[in-house]
Amino acid sequence: MALFGLSAGVLVVFAIILVALALFATELIPVDITAIGVMVTLLLVQPVTEQLTIWGVLEAPVYVLTEPGSDVSATAQGLSGFASTATITVLAMFILSAGVRRTGVIQILGSKVAAYTREDETRQLGATIGLVSPISGFINNTAAVAILLPMVADLAQKGKTSPSKLLMPLSFASMFGGTLTLIGTSTNILASEITGRLGRELGIVYLEEFSMFEFTSLGVLVMTVGIVYLMTVGRWLVPERIKVAEDLTDEFEMADYLTEVVVREDSPIVGQTVRSALQETDLDVDLVQLIRGDEVFLEPLGPKSIQPGDVFTVRTDRDTLVEVMDTDGLDLLPEVEVTEAELEAPESGHNLVEIVIAPGSSLVRETLASSNFRQRYDATVLALRRGDALLRERMDEAKLRVGDTLLIEATTDSIDRLNNNRNFIVAQEVDRPDYRQSKIPVAVGLVAAVVGLAAATPIDIATAALAGALGMVLTGCLKPTEIYDSVQWDVIFLLAGVIPLGIALEVTGGAELIADAIVAIAPSLPPIVVLGLMYVVTALLTNVISNNASVVLMVPVAVEVATQLGANAFAFVLAVTFAASTAFMTPIGYQTNLFVYGPGGYRFTDYIRLGGPLQAIFAVVTTLGIAFIWGLQPPV
Fold first, then answer.
1. Are residues 449 and 538 part of one domain?
2. Would you say 214 and 208 are in contact if contact means Cβ atoms under 8 Å apart?
């Protein structure tokens, strides 16, 4: 069966790719679920079409994961993503990163940086970029941003600088650093595995898995150019979306939404519990704290009985406040301004902090009401920031998204639990007594050992990383129960799900077909221009779908294009790898961009404003760098 000269296998794979791209771009369902859906669909194609052939519906079965008569089963190919060295290595790197984070070494560095930068924005920017770039080369760059985001947010606040001026550069610089080594980003690890497999299958002897420092020279070039851009032109293109504020209540513009009311002697709610009287209401009002004499109570407030003279700090709008006061017998306390100074009292166990909804969070697409947020986490949400938009009314029914920033009031214990919860990133430094500082040399030594073993011995990166992860547990840097929480399982399932798609693209001849089209479009262009074209196409694709999905789709195409041009296939693979590792133009192009979207108060267009010129510069720098360092002719 064929259509327009295309085999049934190619048509099926292209249809799956189109649907997957649409779902990746729109995120109607989580990207990891889309990836698993792709894997399951590919696994079903052969057995379903075989059955349809038996029934006489089709002329012949459709094969997408294996050639007819192959010794390798379609099931083994379809599930190979779970056994992939890329998937295992990325999983181990998450554990290694968590071990480093638990020691508190990054926080110690942060305090040193803050002492150096003070209120000098140039120093703050330079220190942020200079710290995250090299760190991202040796622990996963996504983990590096998650670890450093609270430090940089505090740096901005203490230095009286808008966090908007530092957080997008933090994300971009982590991508520069991710290009330094094989383990800097999951994209590099995945590209390495695909490249090695294609080299073996196509008989291209020089096409092998990447070594640890295979492309470090190009990474240093890219990082240097990127840092110069961010420190010069870029710093003027970064908008100041969040104005410099004295405190968080000012930053979130809470002046008209926070106030205090006192319970009158004749109030009808005296003697009732807080839950029955005030919390279980359809009105848009939240109780932030209860002040009774010299004591201040936070969540859980529901079981407490209301007494005359109790003072409640409430979050609501003026119209609702009037309605509540009339109904429940409350008086407004005159000339009271509720500020961070009143809500933030760490010595008494009270904290006002920002938390960011992390990628893979179970709260994504939930609401504060449906997730039972207040009771579940013993925390009160005062405001929600999504990009540059602030929500301070009717927040309970807003569906949460990755990157949303919540301003919450909670106890120290609650903040500690949130800080340990992979659903969130606490965007301020939290003084944690459980940092294992005595393990700093051990954790850093284990990461160095992983790098050294993979770079200087025959031990492959997956084995070295797994050994390092095991070492983190055996040496006490991590508790056994902590390793599961340290892994971003959405990334693991994304990798496992999309890897079979690359196999199907190669098996059915889809990659060769796309390569034919690219070569046919530019028959008279020199190889270096086609190389640059591969970078641009991959970069544009990565800015709307997952970076890992881009690598899976484009690496086989790059190898086919290079083969047809008689060019260096490794050079073309590097162009795709670097383009997929550096997606600057949208908040959805790379996880680190989503991390800073809410805390920085950015608009979607801010990424194009700062990232567009940088993407264009990198297209030129990366293309010329590859051509100069590796050349475009196949190695002899």
1. yes
2. no
| Residue 313 near residue 338, CB atoms below 8 Å | yes
Which residue numbers in the chain have pLDDT < 50? Answer: none
Distances (CA, A) of 61 to 19, 49, 107: 22, 5, 58
Distance CA 199, CA 175 (A): 27
SS3 210: coil
Residues 599 and 616 in one domain: yes
Domain range for 277: 256-336
Please, what is the angle between helix 31-54 and helix 8-26, to 10°?
Answer: 160
Which residue do the tokens 């262009």 mark? Answer: 525
Convert the pLDDT of each residue in 156-205 to its tens digit.
877 788 888 999 999 999 999 999 999 888 899 999 999 999 999 889 99
Q: How many residues does the chain have?
A: 636
Q: Do both 96 and 70 map to the same domain?
A: no
What number of CA atoms fall less than 13 Å from residue 155's CA on the CB side? 31
Looking at residue 39, what is its pLDDT? 93
User: How many whole angstroms separate alpha carbon 581 and alpha carbon 409?
Assistant: 37
pLDDT at 198: 92
- Taken in order 555, 559, 561, 567, the sign of the CA dihedral is positive
* Number of domains forming the structure of the chain: 4
Return the sign of the alpha-carbon dihedral for residues 618, 623, 629, 635: positive
Structure tokens that stand for 131 in this block: 């710290």
Residues 123 and 209 in one domain: yes
Establish if 341 belongs to a structural domain.
no
Q: Are 150 and 190 in contact (CB under 8 A)?
A: no
CA distances from 455 to 187, 199, 268, 461 (A): 18, 20, 73, 8
3-state helix, strand, coil in the chain (%, to 5): 60, 10, 35
Of 172, 174, 175, 151, give the one whose Cα is nearest residue 163: 151
* 635 occurs within a structural domain: no
